[in-house]
């Protein structure tokens, strides 16, 4: 006796994916004509698909005002859900396509500061050494709750346990010292002393949103290790500028706007090139806190992932690191 499959109500009740695709395009461009151009169909086809979708859902998805359209509250709810679903579908399809390609894609997840200051300048050498690797960089300041669909092969961050299913190994500990431009130092020679430094224009890294990037070290913490109270700055001292974006602080420092705290493994090349200088030799070394490289256990035998892992480890200049530790 043949056993019949019961109707799948979930699939039956789903709207047409073609209509949903038209809806996503219209919501993204807020214009039916531009959505039609993006999907290479007619404007009438987009309007028909949206109308059919609204009838299926029993709700209006757009407020129409001439050629422009905007999402209704119901449309916003639906867009948030389907946009994420379509992103996941596109990523899965992309992974499948690349699995049939002679090139192997490797996804590396790291902080924006690491990508900008450490990794970026080294990428041309990586591309030249391993042309068979398609590198995909994902930057974040939240390593514990990555977006859906983001499954890094390699993670570089301050956490030894980046999540289930990863092997971790230490890379480097935090070595932190003040940096500014030669021009700023020339204009403010008083910052060659700690007291003078305390009363200068300080570019401060605030902790908000950074709890998963690094053990936090700001100017107050750094000066405390030097037995100096930052709160005793002169009343007429320049403003203490705060931002939780390290790249922004370093950009300001390179534009002669003050003194920032430099993480040695990030700023050493800028110091070597003379773009930044150290106004004082005092250094804070966190020997017990390290940055880690974590490799997905599922990719532990993947040749491309292992090549990238080994290359990253080789790029850490241990001689410079040890020299900075000795100065601490």
How would you summarize this macromolecular structure in one to three sentences?
The chain has helices spanning 9-13, 17-29, 32-39, 43-57, 73-99, 112-119, 123-129, 182-187, 194-198, 219-225, 246-254, 264-272, 303-315, 318-327; strands spanning 62-65, 68-71, 104-110, 133-139, 154-157, 166-179, 202-205, 241-243, 259-263, 284-296. It is an alpha/beta fold and 328 residues long.
Largest sheet: 8 strands, mixed
User: Given this structure, which CATH class of the domain at 173-288 is correct?
Assistant: Alpha Beta
Strand content: 15-25%
Which segments are poorly predicted (pLDDT under 50) over 5 or more consecutive residues?
319-328
Fourth-level CATH superfamily of the domain at 173-288:
Periplasmic binding protein-like II
| CATH fold-level topology of the domain at 173-288 | D-Maltodextrin-Binding Protein, domain 2
How confident overall, as mean pLDDT? 86
Helix content: 40-55%
Number of helices: 14
Tertiary shape: globular
Determine Rg (CA atoms, Å).
Answer: 26 Å
Q: Mind explaining what this structure looks like?
A:
GO terms for molecular function: DNA-binding transcription factor activity; sequence-specific DNA binding. InterPro entries: LysR-type_TF_proteobact-type (IPR058163), LysR_HTH_N (IPR000847), LysR_subst-bd (IPR005119), WH-like_DNA-bd_sf (IPR036388), WH_DNA-bd_sf (IPR036390). Belongs to the LysR transcriptional regulatory family. The chain has 14 helices and 10 strands. The chain has 328 residues and is α/β, with parallel strands linked by helices. It is globular, with a radius of gyration of 26 Å. Among the domains are: 80 residues, Winged helix-like DNA-binding domain superfamily/Winged helix DNA-binding domain (Arc Repressor Mutant, subunit A), CATH 1.10.10; 116 residues, D-Maltodextrin-Binding Protein, domain 2 (3-Layer(aba) Sandwich), CATH 3.40.190.10. The strands form 2 sheets. Strands 4-3-5-10-6-9-7-8 form an 8-stranded mixed β-sheet, sandwiched between helices. Strands 1-2 form a two-stranded antiparallel sheet. The C terminus is likely disordered. Helices cover 43% and strands 20% of the residues. Helix 2 packs across helix 4. The N and C termini lie far apart (81 Å).
